[in-house]
């Protein structure tokens, strides 16, 4: 009897399984037409070939960029592609490309090719600028080597419907591929050719600023403190790129520093003193009285402390990112340096960028010049006073 019940039970399960496998009539019939794929269908090289970027493609071919891409194993990348008209404005035509040195064309094209992919849709979601690496590298700058070269960066962002590159606006014209994006440009991009130090030293309107740095540096040197601000203004592997708000001579005068001797007297207001651990056990490197006034101008990286984190902020970053005021640049670490913050706030006033030191009763200062790009960061210029507590 038990065997019979077991057989009936097993047979019933078998029939159930068999019927489940043959439930043809239970399948849902699709309704409507299949959705057609509307996205990109070509790879970026095919897309480039289909464009009328005659000069760009001529340079690409002459420098054998396909081999460069293959050697670097870049599967997806971004092209910044000036149009033929843009190249013509820069004095470069297809005929001129034929006689130009490959080394010069290398430098030009490598600066316009980025080793990662940022699509147009991704660009529009950015708040501020995205630091992207170009293929242009150097090993002849202090501390850089073939296995760890200096890499020229391009900072891409989106502001008021425009493509922003290094703080400058361009009409947004993305051509999308399945493994990259081509951004058409109406101008040829020029790589930065100077450090901040070279620029400030050779512009008389910043003589007070350079003298202020020199005076503070001499005091740090007497106290055996490193690094010094004039070193931070130079491109080396030891320091990261940063943002400098550079006051003109007039800005110093507007804040009561009418002569170089006034700067010297401020620097000697009190002794620097020895480094120490504060109540939170953070290591503190005291600054000169003069440098304490200027430290907010380079986002809290004073001359007694080197920038270990890259922080390059362009005009679109300052106006679009409300989180910058009071932003923590880096956390503190017990028995090491304490946390550092951006001690400035930013506002857009009728198209002008206004900057104010947090907690200060002084009015905001207008940036009279913005987005001066250098190998080691960016400078914005103030002319109507210093950021002071």
Automatic annotation (TrEMBL):
Keyword terms: Signal
Pfam family, one: Fasciclin
Matches recorded under InterPro entries: Adhesion/Biosynth-related, FAS1_dom_sf, FAS1_domain
Domain FAS1: start-end pairs: 40-189, 193-386
GO CC aspect terms: extracellular space
Signal peptide range in chain numbering: 1-24
Protein name, as recorded: FAS1 domain-containing protein
Organism: Chitinophaga varians
Taxonomic placement: Bacteria, Pseudomonadati, Bacteroidota, Chitinophagia, Chitinophagales
